[in-house]
């Protein structure tokens, strides 16, 4: 409930007492607690899925990187073998 003037809120408290405000505060606290519980449950559920997805993505990247490193090593070995042959021939 919104009051355009602060004195209206004070007058309403005098007339109706603190009960409506305490009820509203209790309801708000309960809804905040429910939202927090849902957020924690949602985070826990998605964290497991995210960790599995992350692991799969990292494994795929690892395989790609190892393949690239392997190609570089083979190319360097071939180059060095080629240099040795030309040095031995020369």
Structure description:
The chain has helices at 6-16, 19-89. It has 90 residues and is mainly alpha-helical. It has one domain (6-89). It is rod-shaped and about 110 Å long. The chain starts with 5 loop residues before the first helix and ends with a helix. The mean pLDDT is 82.
Number of domains: 1
- Strand elements, count: 0
Whole-angstrom Rg: 35 Å
- Overall mean pLDDT stands at 82
Order of helices and strands: HH
Contiguous low-pLDDT stretches (5 residues minimum) are: none
The number of helical elements comes to 2
Question: What structural class do you assign from the helix and strand content?
Answer: mainly alpha
How much of the sequence lies in strands comes to under 5%
Largest sheet: none
In short:
Helices cover 91% and strands 0% of the residues.
Protein traits:
90 residues; mainly alpha; 0% strand; rod-shaped
List the helices and strands and how they pair.
Blueprint (H helix, E strand, L loop, with lengths): L5 H11 L2 H71 L1
């Amino acid at each position: 409930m919104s009051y355009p003037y602060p004195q209206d809120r004070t007058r309403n408290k005098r007339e109706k007492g603190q009960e409506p405000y305490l009820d509203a505060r209790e309801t708000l606290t309960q809804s905040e607690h429910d939202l927090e519980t849902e957020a924690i449950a949602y985070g826990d559920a998605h964290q497991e899925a995210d960790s599995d997805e992350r692991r799969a993505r990292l494994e795929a990247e690892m395989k790609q990187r190892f393949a690239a490193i392997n190609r570089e090593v083979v190319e360097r070995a071939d180059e060095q073998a080629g240099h040795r042959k030309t040095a031995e021939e020369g």
